[in-house]
Amino acid sequence: MTPVIYGLSGPEITADERAFFRDAKPAGYILFKRNIVDRAGLRALTDTLRDLDGRDDLPILIDQEGGRVARMQPPEWPAFPNGEAFDRLYNLAPISGLEAARSNARALALMLADVGVTVDCLPLLDVREKGAHDIIADRALGYDPWQVASLGRAVLDGLREGGCVGVVKHMPGHGRATADSHVELPVVDASVDALERDLTPFERLNDAPMAMTAHVVYPAWDAENCASLSPKIIGEIIRGRIGFDGLLMSDDLGMRALSGGFGARAAGVLAAGCDVALHCSGEIAEMTDVAGSVGAIGDPARARLDRAMAWAKPIDGPDFAQSVAKRDALLALV
């Protein structure tokens, strides 16, 4: 198995992709809007990926947060609220906010399971910061780290109950960034003491099955490397200070915060301590470069992957419609 999660170019696997994936044996896949037409097509795609790989517990990821980050969209699927909606409700009625977040996440998980998606890149645990770039903004669960942790736990619980694996992001915190890492490399010039605030939600949810790193430089910890490429941040902060021992993936290798060839980027994040690299573009030449620059997944990383995919525990409970109705009734209190 290759320690990479790959994207695909379109709504069906091409002959070149099929041959490449058969040889590369990636750790998993990630889907985007370009891969999604309708319910039947998406289910056929995920079934094809499982048949090709041979794993029933194959990680098939998606960024389905709600709000402006949603790959599955109306009219085929309903719109979901962003993180700010739960922030507002929590500030009015904390218990209602938690119940709404949990019901919303359960509905998300049930919707994803229906089309064979097994992992949602949620919850976002970045603490919102006034004056920061709006790449996080209304996606965040609030300005208070303890509130973000509490709502994040509710989201994780809801995903698990619906049978979907959650991914906490973006370790060790993207909320202060004044630039978008999709476009350029953000630098967060905050002190070690100030950064403690951003670590709180990740510490509280350090038992999450998966996490994603931030392509952000924190000079207080490492002035030379962004978190995804920093052995010090991954070793001392993420694995040490936060205490996270789940599967750690990089953010997308294609983001402009990183430089150099794609093979070098993949090798760099793995050398820094990420368990798997995330490559999203679906460009076969880039994928080939990545595959040629990484070896087989290590035993500790494979164990974390297997443990993460066994984490989701679907339970009998409210169905999709009931979960959405409960969420909407609670959000109507705001």
Helix content: 40-55%
Gyration radius (Cα, Å) is 19 Å
β-strand amount: 5-15%
Distance between the termini: 48 Å
Helix count from the secondary structure assignment: 11
Please count the beta strands (DSSP E, at least 2 residues each).
12
Low-confidence stretches: none
Gross morphology is globular
- Mean of residue pLDDT? 97
| Main β-sheet, spatial strand arrangement | 1-2-3-6-7-8-11-12
The helix/strand class is alpha/beta
Describe the protein in words:
The chain has helices at 15-24, 39-53, 83-92, 94-114, 145-161, 192-204, 231-241, 262-272, 284-291, 299-309, 320-331; strands at 2-7, 26-31, 60-62, 64-66, 69-70, 119-120, 165-171, 210-213, 217-218, 222-226, 247-252, 276-279. The chain is an alpha/beta fold and 334 residues long. Strand 4 (64-66) and strand 5 (69-70) form a beta hairpin. The radius of gyration is 19 Å and the shape is globular. The model has no long low-confidence stretch (mean pLDDT 97).
Short description:
Helices cover 42% and strands 15% of the residues. By secondary structure, it is of the alpha/beta class. A hairpin with a 3-residue loop joins strand 9 (217-218) and strand 10 (222-226).
